[in-house]
Amino acid sequence: MSEPAPHRHHVIDYVELPVTDIAEAKRFYADAFGWEFTDYGPGYAGIRSPHGDAAPEVGGLRLDQDVRRGGPLVLLYSDDLDRSAQAVKDAGGQVTNGPYEFPGGRRFHFTDPSGNELGAWAEQ
């Protein structure tokens, strides 16, 4: 078993997403991106890191009354942007913008079932 990765000064360490339905959010993110979760009770699920024990969690889903769009935009990296956009649609999300080109790559924005807006991008 490897040692956990050290936290880095002034680097984003953890991102929490407010959601209106924990079970639905977990289903959506698992179906669209293969994410796995650690449950911490009915109101919170940690997002497990794809790097395993070296970085146990990268964020969480927090139960909230409502979700307001706007604010910081979380971007995910994709090796296949078109396939990721289709996976979002297949999982019940809505692509709201793109895919479109920008200097250095392509990206799209989407909303999850709770209404959070995120994006995904790929290098050219």
**Which residue ranges are poorly predicted, with pLDDT under 50 across at least 5 consecutive positions?**
none
Strand order of the largest sheet: 1-4-3-2
CATH class assignment = Alpha Beta
Inertia-based shape: globular
Number of domains: 1
CATH topology: 2,3-Dihydroxybiphenyl 1,2-Dioxygenase, domain 1
Please outline the major beta sheet: 4 strands, mixed
Secondary-structure-based class equals: alpha/beta
- The radius of gyration computed from the alpha-carbon positions, rounded to a whole number of angstroms, is 15 Å
Overall residue-averaged pLDDT value: 91
Q: What is the CATH architecture annotation?
A: Roll
Assess the beta-strand content as a share of residues: 35-45%
Q: What's the order of the H and E elements?
A: EHEEEEHEEE
Assigned CATH superfamily: 2,3-Dihydroxybiphenyl 1,2-Dioxygenase, domain 1
* Percentage of residues in helical conformation: 10-25%
Number of strands: 8
Distance between the termini: 36 Å
Number of helices: 2
